[in-house]
């Protein structure tokens, strides 16, 4: 029941002790922590009890839309809003700070953004998520952030293409996600020494013409690794020059999502690697020998895995090479085939070829993808066909 008392909106029935106002602050703050800050601020009019709750919310979430950033004036208002929130926040710890934008917007003011980062460090921020366009030439990492002791998760998503400085040290960081352009010198063993506790890593790689990027991942505690390779110039051959070295003896889950066939070298692979997902987007009507060999080398290195996930084009590529006898997935007991196109329903040879290379397979899961007019089911939730062998 909702009613107005003294000009304010009351929630619940206070006479019967059932008002939300009777809940302790810790529960109210937990509820508010799931909301964006623009909605959290609106709750201050619910009652006098709620007026100042927003200054103690543990999660500061700012999610901007195209309309929020369509003009510099509107963007300035947003930045003023963030300034105020951080200035008045009275909790000694900020659990999560998230700033995202749905569009490739105008750049944030680097000076003000850096002041936010410094303020977050003072509040012992634990999780930081940024997906917002930045002026790469002007932005410089604050020293207090790249040596932050409180940070546990750092998500720098696709719109935030900013190089790390030469020296970083996050002693307690366990989850890292970032995007990188031409990772020749910046992503190497010395870089990963700055993340001694790293357990989960997502790298989004973008390569431009004329480069031979190298990613050298060395992380002894790493358990989950996802590598996304994006080449917007599919007609150029330079994308094939990328090289990835992986030294992660405790790796359990590996995801490779790429538009070409990089060279992968996995060192110190142990029995801890349980789940592998491979989505190599190849033109299965024509695959050059070099790319074919690289994909086969990768699959051979991962042939001892127990849980294997293959996407449509990867599976059909394997079938087309007609060389399953050269290697066997001897330990695979669980196979997932994702986003299979309707052609696979009429031509079973691809599927049979894969199954023949897995002698102890126990379970097969498949998700189908089909197109009707302009509708593409691959954009929707998977429809699973489940089968126990």
From TrEMBL:
Ranges for domain F-box: 17-65
InterPro entries hit by this protein: F-box-like_dom_sf (IPR036047), F-box_AtFBL13-like (IPR053781), F-box_dom (IPR001810), FBL13/AtMIF1-like (IPR050232), LRR_dom_sf (IPR032675), LRR_FXL15/At3g58940/PEG3-like (IPR055411)
Signal peptide: none
A Pfam family the protein falls into: LRR_At5g56370
PROSITE patterns reported for this sequence: FBOX (PS50181)
Tree of life domain: Eukaryota
Record-given protein name: F-box domain-containing protein
Source organism: Ilex paraguariensis
Source taxonomy: Eukaryota, Viridiplantae, Streptophyta, Embryophyta, Tracheophyta
